[in-house]
Amino acid sequence: MAAAGEMLLEARGVEVTIDGIQILRGGDLDLRAGELVAIVGPNGAGKSTLVRAVSGLHRPSAGAVSWSGRELAKMRGRELAKVRAFVPQRMPVPAGVTVQEAVTIGRSALLRPLGRMTGADRAGVDAALARAGVSHFADRALTTLSGGELQRVQIAIGLAQEAPVLIADEPTSQLDLGAAIDVAGLLRKLADEGLGALVVVHDLALAAAVADRVVVVHEGRTEATGLPNEVLTPGRLSRIWGADARLTAEHGRTALHVAWLGPTA
Amino acid sequence: MLAAAGASLALGAVKLPIAEVLEILLGKGGEGPNHQIVETLRLPRTVEALIVGAALGTAGAVLQGALANPLASPDVIGVTGGAGFGAILILIAFPASIALVPAAALFFGLLAAALVFGFAWSGRNRGSTGKIILAGIAMLSLFTAATTGLLASFPERAPSALFFIAGGLTNAGWEGLRYTWPYFLAGGLIAIFLIRPLDRLALGDDVAASLGSRPQLIRLAAGFSAALLAAAAAAVAGLLGFLGLVVPHVVRMAGGTSSQAFVIPASAVGGAALLAAADTLARTVRAPIELPVGPFMVILGVPVFLWLLRKAV
Protein backbone atom coordinates (compact mmCIF):
# COMPACT_ATOMS: atom_id res chain seq x y z
CA MET A 1 0.00 0.00 0.00
CA ALA A 2 1.29 3.47 -0.89
CA ALA A 3 2.07 5.99 1.88
CA ALA A 4 -0.85 8.28 2.72
CA GLY A 5 -0.99 11.34 0.50
CA GLU A 6 1.55 9.97 -1.99
CA MET A 7 0.83 11.10 -5.54
CA LEU A 8 -0.21 8.04 -7.54
CA LEU A 9 -1.67 9.39 -10.75
CA GLU A 10 -1.17 12.63 -12.67
CA ALA A 11 -2.88 13.33 -15.97
CA ARG A 12 -2.50 16.56 -17.95
CA GLY A 13 -4.16 17.61 -21.20
CA VAL A 14 -5.32 14.11 -22.11
CA GLU A 15 -6.94 13.89 -25.53
CA VAL A 16 -8.71 10.86 -27.01
CA THR A 17 -9.99 10.43 -30.54
CA ILE A 18 -12.16 7.43 -31.39
CA ASP A 19 -13.00 6.69 -35.02
CA GLY A 20 -12.04 10.21 -36.04
CA ILE A 21 -14.20 11.88 -33.41
CA GLN A 22 -12.45 13.76 -30.63
CA ILE A 23 -14.11 12.67 -27.40
CA LEU A 24 -11.64 14.15 -24.94
CA ARG A 25 -9.96 17.54 -25.54
CA GLY A 26 -8.19 18.26 -22.28
CA GLY A 27 -8.60 15.90 -19.34
CA ASP A 28 -6.66 16.76 -16.17
CA LEU A 29 -6.72 14.94 -12.87
CA ASP A 30 -4.59 13.95 -9.88
CA LEU A 31 -5.07 11.12 -7.44
CA ARG A 32 -3.29 10.54 -4.13
CA ALA A 33 -3.20 7.52 -1.85
CA GLY A 34 -6.10 7.44 0.61
CA GLU A 35 -8.17 9.82 -1.48
CA LEU A 36 -11.54 9.28 -3.16
CA VAL A 37 -11.97 11.47 -6.22
CA ALA A 38 -15.35 11.59 -7.95
CA ILE A 39 -15.59 12.41 -11.64
CA VAL A 40 -18.88 14.08 -12.50
CA GLY A 41 -20.36 15.64 -15.61
CA PRO A 42 -23.32 15.38 -17.97
CA ASN A 43 -23.88 12.38 -20.24
CA GLY A 44 -21.39 12.34 -23.10
CA ALA A 45 -19.01 14.78 -21.37
CA GLY A 46 -16.13 12.31 -21.58
CA LYS A 47 -16.00 11.06 -17.95
CA SER A 48 -15.73 7.38 -18.84
CA THR A 49 -13.32 8.12 -21.69
CA LEU A 50 -11.08 10.03 -19.28
CA VAL A 51 -10.87 7.21 -16.73
CA ARG A 52 -10.42 4.61 -19.50
CA ALA A 53 -7.61 6.66 -21.03
CA VAL A 54 -5.68 7.07 -17.77
CA SER A 55 -6.23 3.34 -17.10
CA GLY A 56 -4.63 2.41 -20.42
CA LEU A 57 -7.86 1.00 -21.90
CA HIS A 58 -7.95 3.70 -24.60
CA ARG A 59 -4.75 5.04 -26.04
CA PRO A 60 -4.61 8.85 -25.60
CA SER A 61 -3.78 10.76 -28.78
CA ALA A 62 -2.11 13.54 -26.78
CA GLY A 63 -1.36 14.55 -23.21
CA ALA A 64 0.73 13.20 -20.36
CA VAL A 65 -0.32 10.47 -17.94
CA SER A 66 2.02 9.15 -15.28
CA TRP A 67 1.56 6.49 -12.63
CA SER A 68 3.81 7.13 -9.61
CA GLY A 69 6.13 9.02 -11.95
CA ARG A 70 6.17 6.38 -14.71
CA GLU A 71 4.82 7.30 -18.12
CA LEU A 72 1.64 5.42 -19.08
CA ALA A 73 2.73 5.14 -22.73
CA LYS A 74 5.80 3.13 -21.72
CA MET A 75 4.01 0.70 -19.42
CA ARG A 76 3.09 -2.84 -20.45
CA GLY A 77 -0.13 -4.61 -19.49
CA ARG A 78 1.33 -6.51 -16.55
CA GLU A 79 2.92 -3.34 -15.10
CA LEU A 80 -0.35 -1.46 -15.47
CA ALA A 81 -2.22 -4.26 -13.71
CA LYS A 82 0.01 -3.67 -10.69
CA VAL A 83 -0.64 0.08 -10.44
CA ARG A 84 -4.38 0.22 -11.03
CA ALA A 85 -7.48 -1.95 -11.18
CA PHE A 86 -10.31 -0.93 -13.50
CA VAL A 87 -13.86 -1.89 -12.52
CA PRO A 88 -16.30 -1.53 -15.43
CA GLN A 89 -19.87 -0.38 -14.94
CA ARG A 90 -21.18 -3.89 -15.41
CA MET A 91 -19.14 -6.85 -16.55
CA PRO A 92 -20.63 -9.72 -18.53
CA VAL A 93 -21.82 -12.51 -16.24
CA PRO A 94 -20.59 -15.84 -17.57
CA ALA A 95 -22.50 -18.98 -16.60
CA GLY A 96 -20.71 -21.57 -14.50
CA VAL A 97 -18.33 -19.17 -12.71
CA THR A 98 -18.48 -18.68 -8.93
CA VAL A 99 -17.56 -15.54 -6.98
CA GLN A 100 -14.44 -17.27 -5.67
CA GLU A 101 -13.37 -18.29 -9.21
CA ALA A 102 -13.94 -14.77 -10.54
CA VAL A 103 -11.82 -13.20 -7.81
CA THR A 104 -9.15 -15.85 -8.42
CA ILE A 105 -9.09 -14.73 -12.07
CA GLY A 106 -8.48 -11.20 -10.76
CA ARG A 107 -5.50 -12.48 -8.79
CA SER A 108 -4.01 -13.96 -11.98
CA ALA A 109 -2.81 -10.44 -12.86
CA LEU A 110 0.05 -11.02 -10.42
CA LEU A 111 1.07 -14.43 -11.83
CA ARG A 112 3.54 -15.19 -14.59
CA PRO A 113 1.96 -16.52 -17.84
CA LEU A 114 2.02 -20.21 -16.82
CA GLY A 115 2.77 -19.63 -13.13
CA ARG A 116 0.74 -21.45 -10.50
CA MET A 117 -1.22 -19.95 -7.61
CA THR A 118 0.80 -20.04 -4.39
CA GLY A 119 -0.48 -20.07 -0.80
CA ALA A 120 0.10 -16.31 -0.72
CA ASP A 121 -2.07 -15.90 -3.81
CA ARG A 122 -4.91 -17.91 -2.25
CA ALA A 123 -4.60 -15.76 0.89
CA GLY A 124 -4.73 -12.69 -1.37
CA VAL A 125 -7.97 -13.91 -2.93
CA ASP A 126 -9.49 -14.51 0.53
CA ALA A 127 -8.37 -11.06 1.65
CA ALA A 128 -9.96 -9.41 -1.41
CA LEU A 129 -13.22 -11.31 -0.79
CA ALA A 130 -13.20 -10.19 2.84
CA ARG A 131 -12.37 -6.52 2.13
CA ALA A 132 -15.22 -6.28 -0.36
CA GLY A 133 -17.55 -8.04 2.08
CA VAL A 134 -18.44 -10.89 -0.26
CA SER A 135 -16.81 -13.83 1.58
CA HIS A 136 -20.15 -15.18 2.80
CA PHE A 137 -21.38 -15.82 -0.74
CA ALA A 138 -18.03 -16.77 -2.31
CA ASP A 139 -19.40 -20.14 -3.45
CA ARG A 140 -22.41 -18.72 -5.29
CA ALA A 141 -22.49 -18.52 -9.09
CA LEU A 142 -22.20 -15.02 -10.55
CA THR A 143 -25.50 -15.57 -12.38
CA THR A 144 -27.39 -15.70 -9.05
CA LEU A 145 -26.20 -12.33 -7.72
CA SER A 146 -28.18 -9.10 -7.41
CA GLY A 147 -26.84 -5.91 -9.01
CA GLY A 148 -25.38 -4.67 -5.73
CA GLU A 149 -23.75 -8.00 -4.92
CA LEU A 150 -22.26 -8.19 -8.42
CA GLN A 151 -20.80 -4.69 -8.08
CA ARG A 152 -19.12 -5.69 -4.81
CA VAL A 153 -17.73 -8.80 -6.51
CA GLN A 154 -16.36 -6.66 -9.35
CA ILE A 155 -14.62 -4.52 -6.74
CA ALA A 156 -13.26 -7.69 -5.09
CA ILE A 157 -11.82 -8.79 -8.47
CA GLY A 158 -10.08 -5.41 -8.68
CA LEU A 159 -8.82 -5.65 -5.08
CA ALA A 160 -7.29 -9.06 -5.83
CA GLN A 161 -4.88 -7.24 -8.14
CA GLU A 162 -3.48 -5.50 -5.04
CA ALA A 163 -2.94 -2.30 -7.01
CA PRO A 164 -2.76 0.97 -5.02
CA VAL A 165 -5.49 2.54 -7.19
CA LEU A 166 -9.02 1.34 -7.93
CA ILE A 167 -10.90 3.01 -10.78
CA ALA A 168 -14.63 2.41 -10.96
CA ASP A 169 -16.83 3.54 -13.86
CA GLU A 170 -20.31 4.41 -12.57
CA PRO A 171 -20.42 1.71 -9.89
CA THR A 172 -23.70 2.94 -8.43
CA SER A 173 -25.63 4.03 -11.52
CA GLN A 174 -27.71 0.88 -11.90
CA LEU A 175 -28.26 0.22 -8.22
CA ASP A 176 -31.22 0.93 -5.94
CA LEU A 177 -30.75 3.34 -3.03
CA GLY A 178 -29.74 0.72 -0.48
CA ALA A 179 -27.26 -1.02 -2.79
CA ALA A 180 -25.80 2.35 -3.85
CA ILE A 181 -25.24 3.30 -0.19
CA ASP A 182 -23.59 -0.08 0.32
CA VAL A 183 -21.18 0.27 -2.61
CA ALA A 184 -20.43 3.94 -1.90
CA GLY A 185 -19.65 3.05 1.71
CA LEU A 186 -17.35 0.26 0.57
CA LEU A 187 -15.40 2.61 -1.72
CA ARG A 188 -15.12 5.21 1.06
CA LYS A 189 -13.86 2.54 3.49
CA LEU A 190 -11.24 1.36 0.97
CA ALA A 191 -10.00 4.94 0.50
CA ASP A 192 -9.83 5.39 4.27
CA GLU A 193 -7.69 2.24 4.38
CA GLY A 194 -5.20 3.91 2.03
CA LEU A 195 -6.39 3.02 -1.48
CA GLY A 196 -6.59 5.74 -4.13
CA ALA A 197 -10.14 5.57 -5.54
CA LEU A 198 -11.24 7.24 -8.77
CA VAL A 199 -14.96 6.92 -9.26
CA VAL A 200 -17.23 8.12 -12.07
CA VAL A 201 -20.51 9.17 -10.46
CA HIS A 202 -23.75 10.57 -11.85
CA ASP A 203 -25.45 11.26 -8.54
CA LEU A 204 -24.04 14.62 -7.41
CA ALA A 205 -25.42 14.32 -3.90
CA LEU A 206 -23.68 10.96 -3.55
CA ALA A 207 -20.45 12.37 -4.98
CA ALA A 208 -20.58 15.29 -2.53
CA ALA A 209 -21.10 12.92 0.39
CA VAL A 210 -18.30 10.41 -0.25
CA ALA A 211 -15.64 12.23 -2.30
CA ASP A 212 -12.64 14.13 -0.98
CA ARG A 213 -12.48 16.01 -4.23
CA VAL A 214 -14.70 16.34 -7.28
CA VAL A 215 -13.52 16.67 -10.89
CA VAL A 216 -16.11 18.20 -13.22
CA VAL A 217 -15.78 17.12 -16.86
CA HIS A 218 -17.67 19.06 -19.49
CA GLU A 219 -17.43 18.84 -23.30
CA GLY A 220 -14.27 16.76 -23.15
CA ARG A 221 -12.36 18.99 -20.73
CA THR A 222 -11.73 19.10 -17.02
CA GLU A 223 -13.76 22.14 -16.10
CA ALA A 224 -13.09 22.32 -12.36
CA THR A 225 -11.47 20.38 -9.54
CA GLY A 226 -11.90 20.88 -5.83
CA LEU A 227 -13.95 20.27 -2.72
CA PRO A 228 -17.53 19.27 -3.53
CA ASN A 229 -19.18 22.34 -2.02
CA GLU A 230 -16.70 24.67 -3.73
CA VAL A 231 -17.08 23.10 -7.15
CA LEU A 232 -20.73 22.11 -7.36
CA THR A 233 -22.08 25.65 -7.14
CA PRO A 234 -25.55 26.64 -8.31
CA GLY A 235 -23.98 28.65 -11.13
CA ARG A 236 -22.07 25.63 -12.43
CA LEU A 237 -25.05 23.28 -12.01
CA SER A 238 -27.03 25.70 -14.11
CA ARG A 239 -24.38 26.25 -16.77
CA ILE A 240 -23.24 22.65 -17.22
CA TRP A 241 -26.28 20.54 -16.38
CA GLY A 242 -28.86 23.19 -17.28
CA ALA A 243 -30.46 22.58 -13.91
CA ASP A 244 -31.85 24.98 -11.37
CA ALA A 245 -30.36 23.15 -8.40
CA ARG A 246 -28.56 23.69 -5.12
CA LEU A 247 -26.39 21.28 -3.14
CA THR A 248 -26.68 21.19 0.64
CA ALA A 249 -24.51 19.28 3.07
CA GLU A 250 -24.78 19.02 6.82
CA HIS A 251 -23.97 16.34 9.41
CA GLY A 252 -22.84 13.85 6.76
CA ARG A 253 -26.10 14.18 4.86
CA THR A 254 -26.19 15.66 1.40
CA ALA A 255 -29.10 16.67 -0.77
CA LEU A 256 -29.57 18.13 -4.17
CA HIS A 257 -32.52 20.49 -4.24
CA VAL A 258 -33.69 20.49 -7.82
CA ALA A 259 -36.40 22.49 -9.51
CA TRP A 260 -37.46 19.43 -11.54
CA LEU A 261 -40.10 21.27 -13.50
CA GLY A 262 -38.03 24.36 -14.20
CA PRO A 263 -37.33 27.58 -12.30
CA THR A 264 -39.85 28.60 -9.68
CA ALA A 265 -40.20 31.82 -7.79
CA MET B 1 -10.46 -42.09 -23.14
CA LEU B 2 -8.29 -45.03 -22.17
CA ALA B 3 -11.24 -47.37 -22.54
CA ALA B 4 -12.07 -45.93 -25.94
CA ALA B 5 -8.44 -46.25 -27.05
CA GLY B 6 -8.27 -49.84 -25.81
CA ALA B 7 -11.47 -50.76 -27.61
CA SER B 8 -10.23 -49.03 -30.73
CA LEU B 9 -7.07 -51.13 -30.73
CA ALA B 10 -8.81 -54.43 -29.97
CA LEU B 11 -12.00 -54.25 -32.01
CA GLY B 12 -12.51 -54.29 -35.74
CA ALA B 13 -13.03 -56.75 -38.52
CA VAL B 14 -10.64 -58.99 -36.56
CA LYS B 15 -11.29 -59.01 -32.82
CA LEU B 16 -8.27 -59.29 -30.58
CA PRO B 17 -8.14 -59.87 -26.81
CA ILE B 18 -6.92 -56.76 -25.01
CA ALA B 19 -4.12 -58.74 -23.34
CA GLU B 20 -2.71 -59.63 -26.74
CA VAL B 21 -2.92 -55.99 -27.85
CA LEU B 22 -0.94 -54.96 -24.79
CA GLU B 23 1.67 -57.62 -25.44
CA ILE B 24 2.09 -56.42 -29.01
CA LEU B 25 2.35 -52.79 -27.94
CA LEU B 26 5.00 -53.68 -25.40
CA GLY B 27 7.01 -55.40 -28.11
CA LYS B 28 6.35 -58.99 -26.97
CA GLY B 29 4.53 -61.81 -28.71
CA GLY B 30 6.73 -62.01 -31.79
CA GLU B 31 5.58 -61.56 -35.37
CA GLY B 32 2.25 -62.61 -36.81
CA PRO B 33 -0.83 -61.32 -38.61
CA ASN B 34 -2.30 -59.86 -35.41
CA HIS B 35 0.93 -58.05 -34.76
CA GLN B 36 0.68 -56.54 -38.24
CA ILE B 37 -2.93 -55.47 -37.71
CA VAL B 38 -2.17 -53.67 -34.47
CA GLU B 39 1.10 -52.09 -35.47
CA THR B 40 0.40 -50.88 -38.99
CA LEU B 41 -3.38 -50.41 -38.99
CA ARG B 42 -4.99 -50.04 -35.59
CA LEU B 43 -2.31 -48.16 -33.67
CA PRO B 44 -1.92 -45.34 -36.24
CA ARG B 45 -5.68 -45.14 -36.64
CA THR B 46 -6.28 -45.01 -32.89
CA VAL B 47 -3.60 -42.37 -32.40
CA GLU B 48 -5.12 -40.39 -35.28
CA ALA B 49 -8.56 -40.60 -33.73
CA LEU B 50 -7.23 -39.42 -30.36
CA ILE B 51 -5.25 -36.53 -31.83
CA VAL B 52 -7.96 -35.35 -34.21
CA GLY B 53 -10.61 -35.64 -31.50
CA ALA B 54 -8.47 -33.76 -29.00
CA ALA B 55 -7.67 -31.08 -31.59
CA LEU B 56 -11.33 -30.47 -32.47
CA GLY B 57 -12.44 -30.45 -28.83
CA THR B 58 -9.70 -27.96 -28.00
CA ALA B 59 -10.43 -25.78 -31.04
CA GLY B 60 -14.10 -25.56 -30.07
CA ALA B 61 -13.35 -24.77 -26.42
CA VAL B 62 -10.83 -22.07 -27.32
CA LEU B 63 -13.17 -20.41 -29.83
CA GLN B 64 -16.24 -20.53 -27.59
CA GLY B 65 -14.14 -18.88 -24.89
CA ALA B 66 -12.58 -16.28 -27.15
CA LEU B 67 -15.82 -15.27 -28.88
CA ALA B 68 -18.01 -15.62 -25.76
CA ASN B 69 -20.49 -17.37 -28.00
CA PRO B 70 -21.97 -20.82 -27.40
CA LEU B 71 -22.37 -21.39 -31.15
CA ALA B 72 -18.69 -20.87 -31.92
CA SER B 73 -16.87 -23.78 -33.51
CA PRO B 74 -14.25 -24.14 -36.24
CA ASP B 75 -17.12 -23.62 -38.73
CA VAL B 76 -17.57 -20.07 -37.50
CA ILE B 77 -14.08 -18.87 -38.40
CA GLY B 78 -14.32 -20.38 -41.86
CA VAL B 79 -11.81 -23.20 -41.33
CA THR B 80 -14.20 -26.05 -42.03
CA GLY B 81 -15.60 -24.39 -45.15
CA GLY B 82 -12.12 -23.65 -46.49
CA ALA B 83 -10.77 -27.12 -45.73
CA GLY B 84 -13.81 -28.73 -47.36
CA PHE B 85 -13.35 -26.64 -50.48
CA GLY B 86 -9.63 -27.44 -50.70
CA ALA B 87 -10.18 -31.18 -50.42
CA ILE B 88 -13.13 -31.29 -52.82
CA LEU B 89 -11.22 -29.14 -55.32
CA ILE B 90 -8.53 -31.83 -55.53
CA LEU B 91 -10.95 -34.77 -55.45
CA ILE B 92 -13.18 -33.32 -58.19
CA ALA B 93 -10.94 -31.22 -60.41
CA PHE B 94 -7.60 -33.03 -60.02
CA PRO B 95 -8.53 -36.61 -59.12
CA ALA B 96 -5.10 -37.81 -60.28
CA SER B 97 -3.43 -35.82 -57.49
CA ILE B 98 -5.43 -37.40 -54.67
CA ALA B 99 -2.35 -37.38 -52.42
CA LEU B 100 -2.67 -33.59 -52.25
CA VAL B 101 -6.05 -33.72 -50.48
CA PRO B 102 -4.70 -33.22 -46.93
CA ALA B 103 -2.35 -30.44 -48.03
CA ALA B 104 -5.15 -28.65 -49.90
CA ALA B 105 -7.53 -29.02 -46.94
CA LEU B 106 -4.90 -27.57 -44.62
CA PHE B 107 -4.00 -24.73 -46.98
CA PHE B 108 -7.55 -23.62 -47.76
CA GLY B 109 -8.64 -24.07 -44.13
CA LEU B 110 -5.91 -21.71 -42.96
CA LEU B 111 -6.53 -19.35 -45.90
CA ALA B 112 -10.21 -19.06 -45.00
CA ALA B 113 -9.35 -18.32 -41.37
CA ALA B 114 -6.75 -15.75 -42.45
CA LEU B 115 -9.34 -14.00 -44.63
CA VAL B 116 -11.85 -13.98 -41.77
CA PHE B 117 -9.36 -12.44 -39.37
CA GLY B 118 -8.06 -10.04 -42.02
CA PHE B 119 -11.54 -8.63 -42.55
CA ALA B 120 -12.45 -8.69 -38.87
CA TRP B 121 -9.32 -6.69 -38.03
CA SER B 122 -9.91 -3.92 -40.57
CA GLY B 123 -11.90 -0.74 -40.27
CA ARG B 124 -13.87 0.38 -37.25
CA ASN B 125 -14.43 -1.72 -34.16
CA ARG B 126 -11.63 -4.05 -35.23
CA GLY B 127 -11.29 -7.39 -33.51
CA SER B 128 -14.77 -7.34 -31.99
CA THR B 129 -16.60 -10.61 -31.49
CA GLY B 130 -19.50 -9.65 -33.73
CA LYS B 131 -17.19 -8.73 -36.59
CA ILE B 132 -15.27 -12.01 -36.37
CA ILE B 133 -18.45 -14.10 -36.36
CA LEU B 134 -20.06 -12.22 -39.24
CA ALA B 135 -16.87 -12.36 -41.34
CA GLY B 136 -16.64 -16.08 -40.51
CA ILE B 137 -20.21 -16.86 -41.53
CA ALA B 138 -19.69 -14.92 -44.78
CA MET B 139 -16.51 -16.88 -45.55
CA LEU B 140 -18.19 -20.18 -44.65
CA SER B 141 -21.02 -19.37 -47.06
CA LEU B 142 -18.57 -18.43 -49.81
CA PHE B 143 -16.53 -21.62 -49.55
CA THR B 144 -19.60 -23.82 -49.11
CA ALA B 145 -21.09 -22.29 -52.25
CA ALA B 146 -17.84 -22.90 -54.13
CA THR B 147 -17.79 -26.52 -52.93
CA THR B 148 -21.40 -27.09 -53.90
CA GLY B 149 -20.69 -25.49 -57.27
CA LEU B 150 -17.81 -27.92 -57.85
CA LEU B 151 -19.92 -30.92 -56.88
CA ALA B 152 -22.77 -29.82 -59.14
CA SER B 153 -20.42 -29.27 -62.08
CA PHE B 154 -18.96 -32.78 -61.85
CA PRO B 155 -21.83 -34.90 -60.54
CA GLU B 156 -20.20 -38.14 -61.73
CA ARG B 157 -17.22 -37.52 -59.44
CA ALA B 158 -19.25 -36.42 -56.42
CA PRO B 159 -19.29 -39.87 -54.72
CA SER B 160 -15.52 -39.71 -54.20
CA ALA B 161 -15.99 -36.51 -52.20
CA LEU B 162 -18.66 -37.93 -49.97
CA PHE B 163 -16.31 -39.72 -47.59
CA PHE B 164 -14.39 -36.52 -46.95
CA ILE B 165 -17.54 -34.48 -46.31
CA ALA B 166 -18.94 -37.11 -43.95
CA GLY B 167 -15.61 -37.24 -42.15
CA GLY B 168 -13.79 -40.41 -41.28
CA LEU B 169 -10.51 -42.01 -40.46
CA THR B 170 -8.65 -44.35 -42.78
CA ASN B 171 -6.14 -47.15 -42.58
CA ALA B 172 -3.41 -45.12 -44.25
CA GLY B 173 -0.96 -45.79 -41.43
CA TRP B 174 1.04 -42.84 -40.18
CA GLU B 175 0.64 -40.96 -43.49
CA GLY B 176 -1.97 -38.51 -42.22
CA LEU B 177 0.00 -37.41 -39.19
CA ARG B 178 3.40 -37.23 -40.83
CA TYR B 179 2.83 -33.77 -42.33
CA THR B 180 0.24 -32.41 -39.93
CA TRP B 181 1.82 -33.02 -36.51
CA PRO B 182 3.56 -29.62 -36.34
CA TYR B 183 0.20 -27.91 -36.80
CA PHE B 184 -1.43 -30.00 -34.07
CA LEU B 185 1.51 -29.32 -31.77
CA ALA B 186 1.61 -25.54 -32.40
CA GLY B 187 -2.17 -25.19 -32.07
CA GLY B 188 -2.17 -27.21 -28.85
CA LEU B 189 0.68 -25.23 -27.29
CA ILE B 190 -1.01 -21.91 -28.05
CA ALA B 191 -4.20 -23.29 -26.50
CA ILE B 192 -2.34 -24.08 -23.26
CA PHE B 193 -1.03 -20.51 -23.07
CA LEU B 194 -4.56 -19.22 -23.72
CA ILE B 195 -6.14 -20.91 -20.70
CA ARG B 196 -5.65 -18.00 -18.31
CA PRO B 197 -6.24 -15.15 -20.81
CA LEU B 198 -9.51 -16.81 -21.86
CA ASP B 199 -10.64 -17.01 -18.22
CA ARG B 200 -10.04 -13.27 -17.98
CA LEU B 201 -11.90 -12.62 -21.21
CA ALA B 202 -14.95 -14.41 -19.78
CA LEU B 203 -15.30 -11.46 -17.38
CA GLY B 204 -15.36 -9.04 -20.32
CA ASP B 205 -12.87 -7.02 -22.34
CA ASP B 206 -12.59 -4.32 -19.66
CA VAL B 207 -11.75 -6.73 -16.85
CA ALA B 208 -9.27 -8.56 -19.09
CA ALA B 209 -7.62 -5.21 -19.88
CA SER B 210 -7.62 -4.29 -16.19
CA LEU B 211 -5.70 -7.52 -15.53
CA GLY B 212 -3.09 -6.60 -18.12
CA SER B 213 -4.30 -8.67 -21.10
CA ARG B 214 -5.13 -7.37 -24.55
CA PRO B 215 -8.58 -8.68 -25.53
CA GLN B 216 -8.08 -8.39 -29.29
CA LEU B 217 -4.74 -10.17 -29.10
CA ILE B 218 -6.34 -13.00 -27.12
CA ARG B 219 -9.04 -13.42 -29.77
CA LEU B 220 -6.46 -13.35 -32.56
CA ALA B 221 -4.30 -15.98 -30.85
CA ALA B 222 -7.36 -18.13 -30.12
CA GLY B 223 -8.45 -17.92 -33.75
CA PHE B 224 -4.96 -18.87 -34.90
CA SER B 225 -4.78 -21.83 -32.53
CA ALA B 226 -8.23 -23.09 -33.53
CA ALA B 227 -7.48 -22.62 -37.23
CA LEU B 228 -4.28 -24.69 -36.97
CA LEU B 229 -6.01 -27.46 -35.02
CA ALA B 230 -9.17 -27.62 -37.12
CA ALA B 231 -7.41 -27.37 -40.49
CA ALA B 232 -4.97 -30.13 -39.52
CA ALA B 233 -7.87 -32.24 -38.24
CA ALA B 234 -9.76 -31.75 -41.51
CA ALA B 235 -6.64 -32.73 -43.46
CA VAL B 236 -6.46 -36.02 -41.56
CA ALA B 237 -10.10 -36.92 -41.07
CA GLY B 238 -12.39 -34.75 -43.20
CA LEU B 239 -15.17 -32.59 -41.86
CA LEU B 240 -16.09 -33.49 -38.29
CA GLY B 241 -17.39 -30.09 -37.26
CA PHE B 242 -19.95 -31.40 -34.79
CA LEU B 243 -17.26 -32.49 -32.39
CA GLY B 244 -15.79 -29.03 -31.94
CA LEU B 245 -19.20 -27.53 -31.26
CA VAL B 246 -20.57 -30.06 -28.83
CA VAL B 247 -17.70 -31.44 -26.77
CA PRO B 248 -16.93 -28.20 -24.86
CA HIS B 249 -20.63 -27.84 -23.97
CA VAL B 250 -20.82 -31.41 -22.72
CA VAL B 251 -17.67 -30.84 -20.68
CA ARG B 252 -19.00 -27.61 -19.12
CA MET B 253 -22.39 -29.10 -18.32
CA ALA B 254 -20.94 -32.32 -16.93
CA GLY B 255 -18.19 -30.56 -14.98
CA GLY B 256 -20.41 -27.77 -13.64
CA THR B 257 -17.76 -25.09 -14.24
CA SER B 258 -16.65 -22.82 -17.08
CA SER B 259 -13.12 -22.43 -15.75
CA GLN B 260 -10.87 -22.83 -18.77
CA ALA B 261 -8.26 -24.66 -16.70
CA PHE B 262 -10.87 -27.43 -16.66
CA VAL B 263 -12.78 -26.88 -19.92
CA ILE B 264 -9.84 -26.81 -22.36
CA PRO B 265 -8.01 -29.97 -21.18
CA ALA B 266 -11.28 -31.80 -20.56
CA SER B 267 -12.49 -30.90 -24.06
CA ALA B 268 -9.28 -32.35 -25.46
CA VAL B 269 -9.73 -35.59 -23.51
CA GLY B 270 -13.47 -35.73 -24.22
CA GLY B 271 -12.98 -35.10 -27.93
CA ALA B 272 -10.32 -37.78 -28.12
CA ALA B 273 -12.52 -40.31 -26.31
CA LEU B 274 -15.61 -39.50 -28.38
CA LEU B 275 -13.82 -39.79 -31.71
CA ALA B 276 -11.98 -43.00 -30.76
CA ALA B 277 -15.21 -44.58 -29.49
CA ALA B 278 -17.21 -43.47 -32.51
CA ASP B 279 -14.53 -44.70 -34.90
CA THR B 280 -14.44 -48.11 -33.19
CA LEU B 281 -18.20 -48.34 -33.46
CA ALA B 282 -18.18 -47.21 -37.08
CA ARG B 283 -15.90 -50.06 -38.11
CA THR B 284 -17.44 -52.79 -35.95
CA VAL B 285 -21.22 -52.50 -36.33
CA ARG B 286 -21.22 -53.61 -39.96
CA ALA B 287 -17.78 -55.26 -40.03
CA PRO B 288 -16.00 -55.80 -42.30
CA ILE B 289 -17.64 -52.75 -43.91
CA GLU B 290 -16.38 -49.52 -42.40
CA LEU B 291 -18.78 -46.62 -42.11
CA PRO B 292 -17.59 -43.00 -41.98
CA VAL B 293 -17.20 -41.90 -38.39
CA GLY B 294 -18.76 -38.45 -38.86
CA PRO B 295 -22.42 -39.48 -38.98
CA PHE B 296 -21.76 -42.10 -36.29
CA MET B 297 -20.36 -39.58 -33.92
CA VAL B 298 -23.37 -37.35 -34.37
CA ILE B 299 -25.70 -40.27 -33.67
CA LEU B 300 -23.65 -41.17 -30.61
CA GLY B 301 -23.23 -37.62 -29.37
CA VAL B 302 -26.59 -35.95 -29.90
CA PRO B 303 -28.58 -37.99 -27.35
CA VAL B 304 -25.95 -37.38 -24.67
CA PHE B 305 -25.90 -33.71 -25.55
CA LEU B 306 -29.68 -33.35 -25.45
CA TRP B 307 -29.86 -35.22 -22.15
CA LEU B 308 -27.32 -32.85 -20.60
CA LEU B 309 -29.08 -29.85 -22.13
CA ARG B 310 -32.29 -30.87 -20.37
CA LYS B 311 -30.50 -31.14 -17.05
CA ALA B 312 -28.56 -27.89 -17.41
CA VAL B 313 -29.92 -24.76 -15.74
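Chain A touches chain B through 35 residues (CB under 8 Å).
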